[in-house]
Write a structure and sequence with these properties.
The complex is a heterodimer of chains A (110) and B (111). With 110 residues, chain A is an all-beta fold. Chain A is built from no helices and 9 strands. In chain B, the strands form 2 sheets. In chain B, strands 2, 4, 5, 6, 9, 10 and 11 form a 7-stranded mixed sheet that branches. Classes of the chains: A mainly beta (110), B mainly beta (111).
């Protein structure tokens, strides 16, 4: 079952940074934080994942708090194409299942 | 490019019919998954498979079964379709410990 809590919806102005929070207060020491997004009528797309260090790739940055109980996905310069539902997932890296919650619906406003 | 092929994008079936949803991956991945997605409920895991002929129940297996006879193919079976199984069905695959890759989904309507 989903072990994360995310806001239902958020807005962000085009060109500004979008900061999407996620609470995972029951995360265990060997569970990773994964982020996916789903654009309307498509399957979910992998964005980034991390264990305890901050991570950055060409799509986004992931900031994980020191106690690992929460994280923030940062889209540095949001565009209209970033409008999507964003899912935060915790998962054992040796495990198989991905459990999705209901995610955050991000709307990028022109 | 990673490819996950789901047999149909849209499907309409009658109540009581046996329905097969097929998923094929070309990455030789061990793990394959079936999810359904409904408004307000997010993605819910139905079944997953971690090897050929191996399967485990997810959160909502009732009314579904699965088959994995070959590594690249994972089938979801609705033995007797009902209207409450109208939904978007998503297949995914992954290596153990890596990100999952999703297909485009099959929108099933049971009438």
């Amino acid at each position: 079952d989903a072990k994360t809590t995310q806001p239902t919806s958020m807005d962000c102005a085009e060109g500004r940074a979008a900061n999407l929070p996620c609470n995972h207060s029951t995360i265990s020491g060997n569970e990773y934080v994964y982020w996916y997004r789903q654009i309307h009528s498509q399957g979910p797309q992998y964005i980034i994942h991390g264990l305890k260090n901050n991570e950055t790739n060409e799509m986004a940055s992931l900031i994980i708090t020191e106690d690992r109980k929460s994280s923030t996905l940062i889209l540095p310069h949001a565009t209209l194409r970033d409008t999507a539902v964003y899912y935060c997932i915790v998962r054992l890296n040796t495990g198989n299942q991905f459990y999705f919650g209901t995610g955050t619906s991000l709307t990028v406003i022109p | 490019d990673v490819k996950v092929t789901q047999s149909s994008r849209y499907l309409v079936k009658r109540t009581g019919e046996k329905v097969f949803l097929e998923c094929v991956q070309d990455m030789d991945h061990e793990n394959m998954f079936w999810y359904r997605q409904d408004p307000g409920l997010g993605l819910r895991l139905i079944y997953f498979s971690y090897d050929v002929k191996m399967k485990e129940k997810g959160d909502i297996p009732e009314g579904y079964s699965v088959s994995r006879e070959k590594k690249e193919r994972f089938s979801l079976i609705l033995e007797s379709a009902s209207t409450n199984q109208t939904s978007m069905y998503l297949c995914a695959h992954s290596w153990r410990g890596t990100e999952a890759f999703f297909g485009q989904g099959t929108r099933l309507t049971v009438v």
